[in-house]
Amino acid sequence: MRPIVTILLSILLLIPITGFAAQPSSAFLLRRGAIVDASRGAAYISKPNGTIDALDLASGRTLWTSAAAALPLGASQDVLVAQSEERSPARKFQIAVLDTASGRKLSEASVTLPEGVRALVTDEEGKAFRATAEREGAVFVVSWFYQESPMEGIAPQSGEPAWRLFAGSARISAQSGKVIAAEGGAVRDVPARWRTYDSPPRAPWRAGAALAQTEGGRGRPLTLKRTEAATGRELPDQALSSRALVAVASADERNLLASEQVGEGGPDDPEYQWNIFTLETGERAGELRRDVSAAPFFVFSDSVIFESRPHGYLRGDVRVEEPLEIHSVRLSSGVPKWKVELRDLSYRGPRPPAH
After folding, report:
1. Are 120 and 150 within one domain?
2. Which three-class secondary structure state does DSSP give residue 94?
3. Fewest beta carbons within 10 Å, which of 27, 131, 206, 276?
4. Is the pLDDT score of 145 beyond 90?
5. Helix, coil or strand: residue 34
6. pLDDT tens per residue, range 108-140
7. Same domain for 47 and 184?
8. 355 occurs within a structural domain
9. For position 29, which CATH number holds?
10. The pTM is what?
């Protein structure tokens, strides 16, 4: 039997470390490894080969590729702050500042981490490192968090914590990449911001001039309830669905996904219908069919762009395996526009032997 502490850590590592962290300007986090700047019509994504690509949201084509870093952390104005692969010595957190127009490396920084902390890009068994970058005037504030479980099968000594948790931050010059100040150390609990780092925004959502939230769902009628953000005056309720299962806000809090179970499942009859609404007004924007009830998403122009997690299915007698991807589907017709593979940064355990 696995020790209780290891089980607890497994649960902690499943806290979506899979609200979104606040990104400066118009940039927002779709999922770890994919930062979107809708004002530029671009997304900055981690690729399986260890590079970062700038992706054109309209066409899905690659605008540029950079091998200077592996994981986007934050975007503001004309620069992207990104994390490089772990190097030796392992206590160094390597950061690169890239030009968003070309991908050219403008500067780099190295932050010394506490003893035992590793700046992992891809999670390992029982180990995870998270970081974000936010602009504050002439500097970027890079915040980080690390957690590590004890080795499986080894119970902690009396008085030892069930896991090791560390958090810290660094202030880095946006122009030179110089580390102006850095701090970090052990903490006793997961800091609040990291508990909701990579999960959907929580209600009430700020959508334009309105604050919005939903009532109902789980197979019952779903209603959109709104108030004026400036005055608190209640706005008319909007009935969205008579039998919605879940309701999830888009990554930029502009739209709402309300799903209904409609099919048997599989590529020929997907199980769920995604109904997309505008949060500020409650107007219907479109729909599409998927075999998952919801996923991180946003609406760009006439398309819904969303995460498609790794999955497999049978087509006849053939097993088809699909990797982690971002998909774009035209809202008006449901016709796929493009899809792009992402680097899977999660630890999914050892693969079973092939037969």
Report:
1. yes
2. strand
3. 206
4. yes
5. strand
6. 999 999 999 999 999 999 999 999 999 998 899
7. yes
8. no
9. 2.40.128.630
10. 0.87
Q: Are 58 and 185 part of one and the same domain? A: yes
> Taking the chain, what is the end-to-end CA distance rounded to the nearest angstrom?
27
User: Considering 167, 195, 223, which residue would you say is the last residue of a domain?
Assistant: 195
- 115 and 231 part of one domain: no
122 CB contacts (<8 Å, ≥6 apart)? 343, 344, 345, 346, 347
Q: Do 153 and 58 belong together in one domain?
A: yes
Name the token pair of 67. 């091998």
Q: Which of 37, 54, 118 is nearest to 85 (CA)?
A: 118
Structure confidence at residue 3 as a pLDDT band (50, 70, 90): very low
CB 344 within 8 Å of CB 123: no
The residue out of 172, 195, 218 marking a domain boundary is 195
Label residue 77 by pLDDT band (50, 70, 90): confident
Position 18 scores a pLDDT of 36
Residue 352 lies in a domain: no
d(CA 92, CA 90): 5
Task: With residue 7 as reference, give the H or E element that holds it.
Answer: helix 4-13
Q: pLDDT class for 161, splitting at 50, 70, 90?
A: low
Number of structural domains, the chain? Answer: 2
Arithmetic mean of pLDDT, 3-23: 37
Residue 348 covered by a domain: no
215 plus 165 within the same structural domain: no
Distance CA(295)–CA(293), nearest Å, equals 7
User: Does residue 283 share a domain with residue 161?
Assistant: no
347 part of a folded domain: no
- Do 266 and 159 have their domain in common? no
- Which of 303, 300, 289 minimizes the C-alpha distance to 254? 300
- The domain in which residue 145 lies consists of 4-195
CA distance 123 to 32: 12
Which of these, 78, 116, 113, lies nearest to 95 by C-alpha position? 113
Sign of CA dihedral 251, 256, 261, 266: negative
β-pair partners for 54: 44, 64
Burial call 7-46: b when 16+ CB within 10 Å, e when fewer: eebeebbebbbebbbebbeebbbbbbbbbbbbebebbbbb
Triad 336, 338, 339: Cα angle to 5°: 110
